[in-house]
Write a structure and sequence with these properties.
By secondary structure, the chain is an alpha/beta fold. It has ten helices and ten strands. Strands 6-7-8-3-9-10 form a six-stranded mixed beta sheet, sandwiched between helices. Strands 2-1-4-5 form a four-stranded antiparallel beta sheet, with helices on one face. It is globular, with a radius of gyration of 17 Å. The relative contact order is 0.19.
Length: about 230
């Protein structure tokens, strides 16, 4: 579904990504791993048209390099940024409603799906999002993106700062996405959740992909783990 070739990205004159290449297939969870500053979040932003880039980003065979973020979103790619970008003065339900797009009116997800997945959101559906806890805001951000009925969802550090019980819940949630036929590009530092739910693992270092393979292969690759993942 998504194929990236020779991707370079820049912040002003700073060259951040150096020839990144990988793909994500239909119904697949791909974990993009690496230390802070390795280029993982920049890769997500490049796909979404949020940074200057060169190379090829193909979505279902269509070159989307250079498209605006809203154009990419309407093509069926959902993006959950690491900063839990909610609308704080709107209620939970209003935030979810804003996630809907034209393609989502008869999509795979409904308000009931969101509330069944995360009952806490139903309890707080009329509460302003700005007063939710960090975990609740993360749930809301994930669900709002799903309301747009994406075929691929890019999730940046979904478990950052969350309690272990919520981390486990997010992992179950991501498996549910796969069961519904949605591909996932998971950007994560916590190896446990990424390795347990992903079909393939990618490791980034200094703006390039330094490893591609199965989670089992990564578990046995002591060099990659020590050189590019362990702090």
């Amino acid at each position: 579904m998504l194929k990236i070739n020779n991707l370079h990205a820049y912040y002003g004159k700073s060259h951040v990504l150096h020839g990144v290449e990988f793909d994500v297939n239909a119904g697949e969870i791909v974990a993009l791993l690496g230390r802070n500053g390795s280029g993982r979040s920049t890769t997500a932003k490049a796909i979404m048209g949020l940074v200057d880039c060169e190379g090829s980003i193909a979505w279902k065979g269509q070159n989307i390099t250079g498209k605006k973020a809203y154009e990419v979103a309407h093509l069926g790619i959902g993006y959950v940024p690491e900063n839990r970008d909610i609308f704080p003065t709107l209620t939970v339900e209003q935030n979810l409603l804003l996630g809907q797009k034209g393609r989502a009116q008869k999509g795979r997800w409904s308000f009931d799906d969101m509330y069944n997945m995360f009952p806490r959101l139903k309890e707080r559906q009329h509460t302003e999002a700005g007063v939710l806890s960090g975990g609740e805001q993360q749930m809301l951000t994930l669900c709002r993106t799903l309301m747009g009925d994406p075929d691929l969802i890019i999730i940046d550090e979904p478990t950052e700062g969350l309690a272990p019980k919520i981390v486990e819940l997010v992992g179950q949630y991501l498996k549910t996405l796969k069961e519904r036929g949605i591909s996932v590009l998971l950007i994560e530092q916590k190896l446990t959740i990424a390795m347990n739910i992903s079909d393939r693992a990618l490791v980034m270092g200094h703006g390039s992909i330094v490893f591609q393979g199965t989670p089992d292969t990564l578990r046995t690759d002591a060099y990659i783990r020590k050189e590019w993942l362990e702090v």
